[in-house]
Design goal:
Distance between the termini: 21 Å
Number of domains: 1
Radius of gyration: 21 Å
Number of helices: 20
Largest sheet: none
Length: about 450
Amino acid sequence: MISLLMRTLLISIRQRLQYRPNLQRAISNTSWLFADRILRLGVGFFVGIWIARYLGPGQYGIYSYALAFVGLFSAIAALGLDNVIIRDIVHDPNSRSEILGTSFILKLMGAAVALLVITVSINLLRPEDALTQWVVTIIAFSTVFQAFDTIDFWFQSQVQVKYTVYAKSCAFVLMAVVKIVLLEINAPLLAFAGAALAEFALSAVGLILVYRMTGESINLWRARLSQAKQLLGVSWPLMLSGVAIMIYVKIDQIMLGEMSGDIAVGIYAAAVRISELWYLIPTAIVASVFPSIVAAKKISEAKYYSLLQQLFALMTGLSLLIAVPVTLFANAIIQILYGDNYAGAGTILAIHIWSAWFVFLGVAQLPWDTTEGLTKLALQRTLLGAVVNVAINLVLLPRYGGIGAAVATLVAYAVSACFANGLNTKTRLILTLQLRSLRFVKYLRHPI
């Protein structure tokens, strides 16, 4: 069913747009991205569960807390540049050396700031917990290597994501094998934190290699102050939006850890891992169709919004295909995958999985926000979602623990990704498209 929906969308794109060679490349791009996501869904999912069972709720809670803590500040390192880099290269390919070089330097500077903030914050928050401090600090160094994702954005702008898949998948598979070895030798928690860092380092090396293999060279990159000002002028709202997103994505685990302890975090993280596993799907789809959406805007508004409606429809169809069966079998899924030590995660999963619909819709809106230059409105929506999440967590966590955190996350996603669009006249049309997507079969079978 999922493959049918994907095929229908891609066929309709080809019919609605006139640049057939570009669309064929977009379809190929999507295939590569899905191959990568399927690999990660399969291998990463089961290795992650194996790690959770091995560590137990307590140490798995520390590990999950560390990942959430680093993730909370990772948007600072990214600086909101991701989609901006792709957009600017598509619009002005002759300036690619300046765009890539400037973006890389900015990302390194952002990573340095993020690393400093993370290490200082965790020492202030948990001054007596040396183990958590070390795990957080080790994983935090991954932000430095994420600066090399600038190469990834170049390949995305050229609809050649297969090279990125080569680099990152090889690193992922290699470190999955390393993690299995660590499990077999009963390695300590710090070893798994080191493995998480090593994957980012290997991915960076792989990206450099494939970039050189395609005839490109990092030595040609040039950083310009004027380019930096231009990039940051557009991206800073997206960076703050990213921080807000990380707050309402990760703050639940951090607040749960401080209020209920690491074991509660471990149980909650076990459920969230299954729920968030599916979030790779909309990211893969949107990364492939983003250049086509930019191209559609240049052709006509009708084709542009027709493509967006189809994208929202696909997202709704996919999210419902995931949420309904997971809800029905949540307790059985937790029991089979994690065992008795994670009892209670089933109810959390049954609630949290419904966040997928709003996450899928929110990711689908990102190309529109960037293309229309309305990133400040995206910031306002995500800030509202973050505030809602923190407020509900403060009320529900003391009494309901992980279940309260799941409810808070669901409501926050709904507000930020969907219903907040109704608060501004410029985004009300998007809310209409999102709500219409409930009739996803209609729009995928008969494109408007």
